Amino acid sequence: MLTRLKTLFGKDQGFTLIELLIVVLIVGILAAVAVPLYLGYIKDAKLVEGKSIAGAIWTSAQANSLANCGNAVNVSSGYARAGLNGVTTADGRWTASASGTLTVDCSLGSYSANGDKFTLAGNATDLTPMKVKLNFNTGNSPPAVIQCAVDGTTYVNC
Fold this sequence. Notes:
The chain is of the alpha+beta class.
């Protein structure tokens, strides 16, 4: 049977060294391009996780403040409604620290809460330098801005 296959396909053939080197070179180029892109996607996904938690905290803080019209309400009072166990997320990957109150003027529907409202810091080993904070300034448009710091110190709007 082996002799029939040899007569059908000809003699034994293999890849030359040049062909193998070209394939290795192409795979290396693809890996060199793909790895930095992949690492960027991972970093962006981690920041999105923090931004979604920040959005949940801000929404619950607004709801608590609206329920107590005219009274200053600590932003940290919205942690439980946002799904935090105390000051950490349920999986323990993020820790929140509130730094202010929020007051709603019920007749105008406006907030009086300038400055940083809370900061989320990454707890997990893959998140340790990352921080996400919400800054509120009534003079800005939009007044509420989420800012991120990949290195833990330099915040940019994200």
